[in-house]
Amino acid sequence: MRKSAEEARRTRDRIVGAAVDQASSQGLSGLTIGSLAEALDMSKAGVVGPFGSRAGLQLAALTRAEEMFTQAVVAPARAAEPGLPRLAAVIDAWCEYLAHSPFPNGCFVTAASCELDGRPGELRNHLHDTVTRWRRFLHDQIKTAQASGDLAAPLDADDLVSVLTGIAMAANQEIQLLGDPTAAARARRLMHTALDNRRCD
Q1: pLDDT 10s digit of each residue in the chain, 201 long?
Q2: Exposed/middle/buried for 132, CB within 10 Å: 0-12, 13-18, 19+?
Q3: What is the DSSP letter of 81?
């Protein structure tokens, strides 16, 4: 029984991994059971079975991509002190993630946001909640930095969140669409400059 459960887990992980790769290049809406079954040399029923439906598989792929982002960007930064040190660590990890994305088409969350922003449904709701938590995390680090006197108190934290997010999204486009090898380094410099410009004297 234990062996069967472990095999089922490995099979599920294998399917999700392939689904993330396919969705990264073709979008979540382009994720098809047939193409996955062919790529994995499995039956369609075997591919969709662990998830109950294609929608369940899409949600699993989106969740896996979000977890990969968290592991690459947020987890390393948690070793830094809350506030400005952690925010600076996040910027470094974020830009490294953009420069060396594990996905064929760059940041999965950014691509999914463009794909799903006008499509109501469970996937959009899930992504909305994920992006909201990410922005709240940035917001909280900014407020902590203000409370400790590292960043100017009159600063609107949401304004800085938008600045940092906008730079990251621009960098993703420059890397993926324009093929600019300097984009990630420029994004890192611009993000740190955005913090420096708001430091307390």
Answers
A1: 455 888 888 999 999 999 999 999 899 999 999 999 999 999 999 999 999 999 999 999 999 999 999 999 999 999 999 999 999 999 999 999 999 998 888 899 999 999 998 999 999 999 999 999 999 999 999 999 999 999 998 889 999 999 999 999 999 999 999 999 999 999 999 999 999 988 876
A2: exposed
A3: P
CA distance 18 to 40: 8
- This prediction has a pTM of 0.90
Whole-number Å distance between alpha carbons of 90 and 83 = 11
| Distance separating alpha carbons of residues 138 and 67, to the nearest angstrom | 17
Q: How distant, in Å, are the alpha carbons of 7, 41, 137, 175 from that of 30?
A: 27, 19, 31, 22
Helix H, strand E, coil C: the string for 90-118 is HHHHHHHHHHCCCCCCCCHHHHHHHHHCC
Pick from 119, 92, 120: nearest CA to 188: 92
**Which DSSP string do the residues of 33-71 spell out, in sequence order?**
HHHHHHHHT--HHHHHGGGSSHHHHHHHHHHHHHHHHII
The rounded distance, in Å, linking the Cα atoms of 107 and 99 is 10
Look at the block and give the residue holding tokens 């099979």. 11
For residue 158, what are its two tokens?
């949401």
d(CA 14, CA 58): 14
On whether the CB atoms of residues 169 and 117 are closer than 8 A, the answer is no
